[in-house]
Amino acid sequence: MRRKYMAKFALAMLMGALFCRVGELQAAELREEASDDRDYVLGRPMTEEEIAEIEAAIAPYAGMGGYQEEDTAYVYAGENVPMPINADIPRRYDVRREGANIVIESQRYGDCWAFAALDLLQINAWKQGMVGMPDLSERHLVYYTYHSVCGTPGQQPGEGTAFRDNGQSTQCFWNGGKYDYAVRSLSSYLGAVPEYMAPYPEAAVPLADSADAYFGACIRLRSAYAFPAADGELLKRMILQYGAAGITYCSSLNYYEYSTAAQYCPYDMRADHAVTVIGWDDDYGRENFKEPPESDGAWLVQNSWGTVFGDEGFFWLSYEDVSVGENAYVLEACADMGEYVYQCDNTILDNREMDEGELQVANCYTLQGAWGCDEILKAVNVTVPVGGMGYRLELFDLTDGKRIGEQALLPEPVTGQIAWPGNATIELPNSVVMAYGSRVGIALTFYGDTVGIYTDASGGQGKTVCTAEGGTGVSYRAQSGQWEDYGARTNRNFRIKLLTDPVAGEALSIPAIYDTYLGIEDGRQAVEYLYRQLLQRKGEEQGISYWQTYRQINDPIMVMAGFLWSMEYRQKHPETASGTQLALCVEIETGRAVGEICQLYQNILHRECDLPGLLYYLERQAEGVSIEEMEKCFYLSPEYAELRKTVE
After folding, report:
1. Whose CA, among 86, 241, 351, 591, lies 20 to 30 Å from 171?
2. In Å, how far from its chain's centre is CA 538?
3. Whole-prediction pTM
4. DSSP label at 375?
5. Which residues of the chain register pLDDT less than 50?
């Protein structure tokens, strides 16, 4: 029996050596054939085995059609739009040669749109000098795009996007998407968060239905624009300005040449895959493609199929590829766009309000971002389907029943042009500070041959269900010189957002802070208020989550004690007697004077009172124990005995 197995083993070794030799001979023959001018990834044509290995690795998602075609056409401007980067365009460009550190990732579902969008955002952040940017979470972007949560001021109850997945969260990842969906989510402050906050390999686990989805971002979206992908010069200039551009194309491998990592589809096929263009080469040879196009030249493309595909994850796409989608996209990043976003358009499906010549629209919000804090109005964000429009932005104080047009908040209107369709942020040149609870009106007038603005929309698309809630007194449109309640009439709201920052107000006493804290019903707002008032900063997500949970299972005074006795508070306020201040807070909560008990701590133990001890003696006091009996307890305590030993 053993000789039989030994013979089989020897035969297997012989066959393995033979096949290795055949593979070496095949590779050698291919190297001899590679005497042409083709730019081979391996320096030679790939073997059938090498191609089969790549095909097997990318089979789950290659050509799966995860990108959804645009259902509304953008209106691009004529020749009156200035070109970005007015400089000579090089014949060859690669953003990596400028120092961009691009990491190739592997999608597992039909979510190429999320990978491409976050790649654009991350490359632009690098372009602007934002160093140390972590990997961004596609899982967070995809999940919350299809599972809305209500967590920012201005949102209407019941509005949002839902996905009928029966708890199987990966279904929305297979659903596909598009750049517009990513822009809607990112502009609404849903990210972008670091990968560790929502790891992609855990996509099968649903994320929390919590307002925390809007917090924890390490980078924000400032703007995003669409432009004609067929305009090669414009595409190059956009890449030079923003670092990269997003496009779509038909990803069928029938048109892909493995050996040179080159794609060319000569047919008008559906663009089913989103990728990131990071460069180009005007002299990239036409002979590199499976079916040669008429001319040289190709785009350098970053894919999301892992490093096994193409040239370590990158490939070349012919300038003449007929399947490339109509629109290309750029995203602009920002480290901080304002701490709070006011919005009322929480759906990914759109509707449009269009006109000719002029369009006047407005959104109105009540300031309630930071409990009791004044707010600085920083910027206005708007999403439009038309490029080349001029605009005039005005802000009005609508507090106490005032109307749009009556009391301006800016010394003069902000004017400018939105060159391309998409999402634009208009920063305010003057600092406007408004009190908590004030009402602000944002009025935008657009000018041009064709003008328009996006609204949210109700409707269904497969398993995706969007619900718009117009509400009353939210969105307005001017008709014949009169402002009508557009939201109440159409049940839709304009995609106009207000970005603000809280103002550090006067320093309040600890008892005053605690008194206000007790009146805040929302747990997150209450904890954020303590961060702002006691530590003079915005709370980090981990800390906010901890104190929210702690607040649910403990008395409010214990949360206050945690802040006052924290190392950070003591370092920032070394002059504050935390125990004494806590005692005053206890007076507010219990309605009982604690001065005599605090005096016992000072006179007998020579220190501030501690919260557990103070609460203990207050309970004894409520049971009828007199201050004299408490004094005896202090003198009989082990702590006092230790003090006596030290003195003696």
Report:
1. 351
2. 18
3. 0.81
4. E
5. 1-35
